[in-house]
Structure formats: structure tokens, C-alpha cells
Amino acid sequence: MDKNKTGQNENKSPKSEHVVNNAIPFKKVFVIGPDGEKIGVLSKDEALDKAAEYNMDLVLIALENNKPIVRIMDYGKFKYDKKKKQKAVKEKQAVTLNREIRLTPLIGDHDLETKARKAREFILEGNRVKISVKFRGRERSRTDLGEEILNKFFTLVEDVAKISKEATLQNDRFLDMYIEKDKRKVEALKNNNDNPEE
């Protein structure tokens, strides 16, 4: 099947968010002033002159019944404010995923470092990570080994992480600890990398 006929590729071309100043394709426009006041119908050139008086831009904001409505505004500031709002909304909507890393009380150093690298990736992506030590058979009586492993593990990621929930024993089989990104540590680390000492 020809994909071009499905219309999937039609939206690929970059589209400017707003039509501004000389790019407005109408000879006559209804003008709204910078404070929301209605100025009325002007020719495009008159509207552009009016916008220039305010040292602002002319922005096409709507098309009602084929009548173009433009507003005089500082378009650069408008775009910046909009971007800022969108970023704030996105940050509020950021979904924290729960990830899990499984360890054993007798895990080797190499495996521990490999798992710590994976946990670091999860943490830097903003995820919460459950570090779980699984005890088998007689290991259950040596929960201190599990605590040692968790402490050792945390030292490998503590430059970017903080403990959000201390280690607790679940069903006598799992020692679970939760860690997540420590924003201040990550910021400090980033600054150190940006400004290495001479």
C-alpha cells in the first residue's frame, strides 16, 4: 500500500506556529491592540505601521468567517512565555517510573558495578529504583550481608542518588531499599563537569 495515499506523511512539513508581520497574506485585517483593545479594520500596511509604533509585531491569531484577526504584541516574549508555561506543565506531568534492580547477598564486585551502572541510568532518567536483595535458604539468617551489599551498592550511585526509603525486610526473603535522583547532587556534578579544575 502506498503510504503517501494514507495521508500519514502530510504533516511532516514544518509549520510555523503563527503567521507574523509581512507573512500575513491578507490585504485587510481586524486589529487588536497590545492591551486587548479593539482598533478595528485596517489595511495590512496600516496595521504593520501601527505595530511599528509600539515597537511590536503583528501576529495573526484567528480567522473567523474568513476575516483575519491580528494582534499587536511582542512575539518574541509571547513565544518565550508560552515555552516556559509548556515546560512547567511538562514538569508537573513527568511520570516517575518504578524500576527494580535485583541483587544477591554474595554478588561479585563486577556484577554489582554493572547493576549500579544500570541503576544510575534509571535514576538520571528520573525514575525511582527499588534495590532488592533476595535471600535463599540459609542466607535468610544473614540479613546483615544484605545490608552490607545495599550499602556497597549505594556508594556506587550516591553521587547522583538519595535514599527515599530505608532498607526493610519483606517476607523474610527480600531486603528492599528505594533510591531516587538527588537533584542537588546531579546539579553539582554537572557544574563540576562543566568547570573542571585547571
From TrEMBL:
<dbReference type="GO" id="GO:0003743">
    <property type="term" value="F:translation initiation factor activity"/>
</dbReference>
<feature type="domain" description="Translation initiation factor 3 N-terminal">
    <location>
        <begin position="20"/>
        <end position="88"/>
    </location>
</feature>
<dbReference type="InterPro" id="IPR036787">
    <property type="entry name" value="T_IF-3_N_sf"/>
</dbReference>
<keyword id="KW-0396">Initiation factor</keyword>
<comment type="similarity">
    <text>Belongs to the IF-3 family.</text>
</comment>
<dbReference type="GO" id="GO:0043022">
    <property type="term" value="F:ribosome binding"/>
</dbReference>
<keyword id="KW-0648">Protein biosynthesis</keyword>
<dbReference type="GO" id="GO:0016020">
    <property type="term" value="C:membrane"/>
</dbReference>
<dbReference type="GO" id="GO:0032790">
    <property type="term" value="P:ribosome disassembly"/>
</dbReference>
<dbReference type="GO" id="GO:0005829">
    <property type="term" value="C:cytosol"/>
</dbReference>
<comment type="subunit">
    <text>Monomer.</text>
</comment>
<dbReference type="Pfam" id="PF05198">
    <property type="entry name" value="IF3_N"/>
</dbReference>
<dbReference type="InterPro" id="IPR019813">
    <property type="entry name" value="Translation_initiation_fac3_CS"/>
</dbReference>
<keyword id="KW-0963">Cytoplasm</keyword>
<protein>
    <recommendedName>
        <fullName>Translation initiation factor IF-3</fullName>
    </recommendedName>
</protein>
<dbReference type="InterPro" id="IPR019815">
    <property type="entry name" value="Translation_initiation_fac_3_C"/>
</dbReference>
<comment type="function">
    <text>IF-3 binds to the 30S ribosomal subunit and shifts the equilibrium between 70S ribosomes and their 50S and 30S subunits in favor of the free subunits, thus enhancing the availability of 30S subunits on which protein synthesis initiation begins.</text>
</comment>
<dbReference type="Pfam" id="PF00707">
    <property type="entry name" value="IF3_C"/>
</dbReference>
<dbReference type="InterPro" id="IPR001288">
    <property type="entry name" value="Translation_initiation_fac_3"/>
</dbReference>
<dbReference type="InterPro" id="IPR019814">
    <property type="entry name" value="Translation_initiation_fac_3_N"/>
</dbReference>
<feature type="domain" description="Translation initiation factor 3 C-terminal">
    <location>
        <begin position="98"/>
        <end position="180"/>
    </location>
</feature>
<dbReference type="InterPro" id="IPR036788">
    <property type="entry name" value="T_IF-3_C_sf"/>
</dbReference>
